[in-house]
UniProtKB/TrEMBL annotation:
Gene Ontology CC annotations of this record: cytosol
EC number: 6.3.4.21
Transmembrane parts of this sequence: none
Name this protein carries in UniProt: Nicotinate phosphoribosyltransferase
Positions of the Nicotinate phosphoribosyltransferase C-terminal domain: 373-479
Pathway linked to the protein: Cofactor biosynthesis; NAD(+) biosynthesis; nicotinate D-ribonucleotide from nicotinate: step 1/1
Family recorded in the similarity comment: Belongs to the NAPRTase family.
GO MF entries: nicotinamide phosphoribosyltransferase activity; nicotinate phosphoribosyltransferase activity
The organism's place on the tree of life at top rank: Bacteria
Gene3D superfamilies attached to this UniProt entry: Aldolase class I (3.20.20.70), nicotinate phosphoribosyltransferase (3.20.140.10)
Enzyme class: ligase
Length: 495
């Protein structure tokens, strides 16, 4: 999918915070623009008080970086920008530099559909400071949102326990682009289809739907409306039964189903969109079964989310298909993932990357210095722990200890020889050239499912999930501690 071409007709370079451009200008002016740096994109806490996050959005990032350039109109726009004193905001030389800028970074990232955890890099960008800096906002914009919605979708699908979840969110989504990105991410997270036809066309997602109350209301009677719908779609009708009286609606659906059957056709089912969904779905199941329609599906919708679905399952509701809109595509209970993008190393004059630390009053916010990758260890296809390690460091095959970056008392011994392992950050761009081809969306969705299956259910429960172990390899932990002490000493020395 070519997001830049199909949706934005060209360059997206100005889809950034103004401060990225002012910093880029200042880097250029101070001669630091080409200095090599490393930045990591990561988040600090799972959304929805959950125990996992599902990464999504990399295909957009690839498209963004592949088309990264400042077009003629972009430069024209920047050249007429004025500083508060009325002088041009940017020097001509800088604008010329931008107009000739070619993307040349290395990017390593987790594949879409990977389950990811706090503090571990989801994306690592290595390249000239100016380019790394300019990528901050768009990368966060893309990955924060799609990962958030993919995670919400995964939670909703886990609650539905394998029954299809139809995504109905377009009318309530955050604008046009938010809706499209949400439909894509929801599909990656496990939804069976979207009601958004454009998302179907752009991303190759299955499209499905039923009909609205307006269809029923446009006829004199509900029965006539069902009959006319059955005429139009004899093999795929799902009747919305709650416009007037739900029980009577179910009976009307059965009448039309019986008429269809005489013609050798079969109704697919009914949809209930209001009232007590447990009560009405159970009544519907009884009536449908008695009338000889045990295969007819019962679709439920109306402000559903993972918690209501879990509750309805606990009440033994007879619902087979779940229509979910608003609470999925708006990530109703948590509006943003909160991933950040931080510098972790910079190349010095002697050509060596120097790890960088930022100490903070909150220990949670002290970054992880250096150039890392993340290893996931598996035992019999079950994920057992993730280890963030310095990429050039040999891991002791006889064993190492991983240390929780937010609580050094939490440690776990890892014996690599006993496990299978996977490096989660894969090369995506090398010196600006794409070296990775995004799988098609079906494959991404399958990966998400396989990844979720590889985690114990205790990490996936909706309430108070069990913490999955993620830690720093001991050498990285020691480097971090050393740099923190050095920084503190400098701080005290300066005080
Ligand atoms: N048995 C149930 N257990 C838990 N939650 C339910 C049950 N039945 C319905 N719900 C949920 O309760 C909420 C009901 O909301 P609301 O009162 O707005 O619906 P309603 O009475 O059907 O009216 P409307 O037609 O305006 O949607 C919805 O979120 C719905 O999914
Ligand atoms: O509830 P959601 O999860 O967002 O799912 C989509 C909703 O959109 C439709 O109705 P709409 O809300 O437009 O009107 P209605 O509820 O008054 O029928 C549909 O009938 C669902 O109720
Ligand atoms: O197809 C449906 O039933 C549908 C689509 C959008 C919103 N609500 C329901």
């Amino acid at each position: 999918m070519k997001i830049t071409k199909d949706l934005y007709q060209g360059s997206l370079a100005l889809l950034t915070d103004f401060y990225q451009l002012t910093m880029a200008y200042a880097y250029w002016k101070s001669g630091k623009g080409e200095q090599e740096a490393v930045f990591n994109l990561f988040f600090r806490k799972h959304p929805f008080q959950g125990g996992f996050t599902l990464a999504a959005g990399l295909d957009y990032v690839i498209d963004y970086c592949s088309n990264f350039r400042f077009g003629k109109e972009d430069i024209e726009y920047l050249s007429q920008m004025k500083a508060p004193d009325g002088s041009p905001q940017f020097e001509k030389g800088f604008l010329e530099y931008l107009s000739e800028l070619k993307f040349s970074c290395d990017i390593d990232a987790v594949e879409e559909g990977t389950v990811v955890f706090p503090n571990a890099p989801m994306v690592r960008v290595k390249g000239p400071l100016i380019q790394c800096q300019l990528l901050e906002t768009p990368l966060l914009n893309i990955l924060n949102f799609q990962s958030l919605i993919a995670t919400k979708a995964a939670r909703i699908n886990l609650a539905a326990k394998g029954e299809p979840v139809l995504e109905f969110g377009l009318r309530r989504a955050q604008g046009i682009d938010g809706a499209l990105a949400a439909s894509r991410a929801a599909y990656i997270g496990g939804c069976a289809s979207t009601s958004n036809v454009m998302a179907g066309k752009l991303f190759g997602i299955p499209v499905s739907g039923t009909h609205a109350h307006s269809w029923i209301m446009s006829f004199e009677t509900e029965l006539e409306a069902f009959e006319a719908y059955a005429d139009a779609f004899p093999n795929q009708c799902v009747f919305l039964v709650d416009t007037y009286d739900t029980i009577n609606g179910i009976k009307n659906a059965i009448k039309v189903g019986q008429a269809l059957r005489k013609k050798g056709k079969e109704m697919m089912g009914i949809r209930i969109d209001s009232g007590d969904l447990a009560y009405f779905s159970n009544q519907a199941r009884e009536l449908l079964d008695e009338a000889g329609f045990p295969e007819a599906k019962i679709v439920a919708s109306n402000d559903l989310d993972e918690h209501i679905i879990t509750s309805l399952k606990g009440q033994e509701a007879s619902i087979n298909v779940w229509g979910v809109g608003t609470k999925l595509v708006t990530a109703f209970d948590q509006p943003a993932l909160g991933a950040v993008y931080k510098l972790s190393a910079i190349k010095t004059e002697n050509g060596i990357f120097q790890p960088k630390i930022k100490i903070s009053q909150q220990s949670l916010k002290i970054n992880i210095p250096g150039i890392h990758n993340v290893k996931r260890y598996y035992s019999n296809d079950k994920a057992v722990a993730d280890m963030i390690y310095l990429e050039n460091e040999e891991i002791n095959p006889r064993g190492t200890v991983i240390i929780d970056p937010t609580d050094p008392t939490r440690r776990k011994r890892i014996m690599p020889a006993f496990y299978q392992e996977e490096d989660l950050l894969k090369p995506i761009f090398k010196k600006g050239k794409a070296v990775y081809q995004s799988p098609d969306i079906q494959k991404i969705r399958e990966r998400a499912q396989k990844q979720l299956d590889s985690f114990d259910k205790t990490h996936k429960r909706l309430v108070n999930p069990h913490l999955y172990p993620v830690g720093l390899e001991e050498n990285l932990h020691h480097l971090r501690m050393e740099l923190v002490l050095q920084a503190k000493k400098m701080e005290n020395g300066n005080a």
